[in-house]
Each structure stands twice: as C-alpha cells, then as structure tokens.
Amino acid sequence: DESKLILENKMAAIGELATGMAHEIRNPLGLIRSYSYLIRNAQPQAVTAQPETIASYLTVIDNSIERANTIISNLLNFSRLSGDERDTFNLHALGTELFALGKKTYEIAGIETALDVPETLLLHSNLESMKHILINLLSNAIDAMPDGGTLKLASTTKGRDAFITVSDTGEGISDEHIKSLFLPFFTTKGPNKGTGLGLYIVYNEVQKLGGEISVKTKLGEGTAFTVRLRGVV
Ligand code: ADP
Q1: Alpha carbon distance 126, 89 (integer Å)
Q2: Of all atoms in ligand 1, which is nearest to the CA of residue 195?
C-alpha cells in the first residue's frame, strides 16, 4: 500500500544520500592528500618548489577543505528537513510494519524477530523521524548477525517518557569503536557496504526529537540501542 511505498522510497533515499555523501567527501580529501604530497616532496630547484606554485597548491587545499565543510553542513541540514510536527502513532503497529517489510531478509539471514511493545501504546512524536531512527537501527542489527540470531524491538515507559530499544544477539561493539559510533562516515563494514552515516542520522533525528540515545553492548553477545523520548506518552 501507499505507506509501504513511502517507507521504501525513504529507505532508498537514505541509501542514495549516504553513498553520494561518502563519494563526494573522498574527492576533496584526495585533492588535499595529493597537493600536500607535492608541497612536501618538491625538489628545491623544481618549478613545484616556487612560492607561486606552492601558493596555488595551498589554494587548492583551502578550497578542498571548504568543499568538504559544505558537504558536512548539507548533511546537517538534511536532518532538519522533516518538520517537527507531532503525530500520534502506535509503536506496536509501526514495529509490525517494519518487521513485515524485512521478512525476506530475516528469513534468509536466519533472524528471528521479537516485538515487545504494548499493543495499546500511543506515542506523540514525529513519525518520519521515528521511522528514520528505527530503519537505521534495525538494519545495523541485521548486519551484526550474519549467522542469524534474534532481533528485538521493545519499549517501556516511565511517566510520560518512552524508552525504545532495538537489540540484537550479534557480534557486539569493541570499546575502541564505541566512541566513534555516531560520527559521520565511521564504518567498519568496508567502503562498498558501509557509509558510516546510519548512526549519524539516528543521532541527529533523536536530537531533533529532544531525546537521548544510549548503547549497551558485549562482544560476541550483542548490542542494544535505547532511545529515550521525553513527554511523548
Ligand atoms: P554503517 O552501517 O554504514 O557502517 P552506521 O553509522 O550505521 O554506519 O554504523 C557505524 C558502525 O557502528 C558500523 O560500521 C558498525 O561497526 C557499528 N555498529 C552499529 N550498529 C551496530 C550493531 N548493532 N552491532 C554491531 N556494530 C554496530
């Protein structure tokens, strides 16, 4: 139906944005590397060692830094695009919908799903943001379980706050990687698979909702990301 289509387009859009950004940021970085190499390795008598030439190389470096900066700013703006209107939605229904969309993937990967969300729970928050957040967390959880496992979406409430947890029984995250998790372009999945923008987008969306995100993980046992949303119940 229509909502499925919107969701699928959204997923494709996230993927495209991510690949595009990663690609674009590599170009200015490559220029910076090449021109700093030329400056550093210039032979004293060569044309490349003359002050004018070096000045022109430095200009290329400056422009490349400017370019990379612009790309990052655009990415920040992307997360402001969806409005901060509040919707009222049923988290159990949303979880059911997302699990249904991924059914094939889960079957192939040998992943069991569990939905531990009260059927009657209504949240007052931005639905588009919530979808961005969940889609990214779920897709990371799947990647973390190449040999299968359990993927769980759970929620609890405390007063008017909601705690939404996506957990997996996958590989876990090392201490070394924990501090970089939410940085844009941080990925351990290799250049063709990971873009390093998923958790960055998640972080931005959570911020936009005025919430917090935390992670609990154990190597070889699994990972749980919990989003706390204030005043949404
Ligand atoms: P990407 O998925 O493109 O790598 P993300 O920003 O979504 O980018 O994630 C960054 C990195 O965080 C991943 O490459 C992975 O190393 C780690 N990560 C994220 N979620 C999980 C998870 N559930 N289990 C293990 N590692 C994870």
Answers
A1: 9
A2: 3
